Amino acid sequence: MEVDNLSIDDYDAFLMILGEQGKKMEADAMKQQNISRGRGR
Fold first, then answer.
1. How far apart are CA 20 and CA 31, in angstroms?
2. Structural domain boundaries in the chain
């Protein structure tokens, strides 16, 4: 990944966006697990 041409501010914003997406994906995955666990019982 090339970050040479990014300013620090851009990189911080980039990481924040990635972090938010990661949290959402984690939450979605947890929901899926809970749903499948509930069905299994």
1. 17
2. 8-39
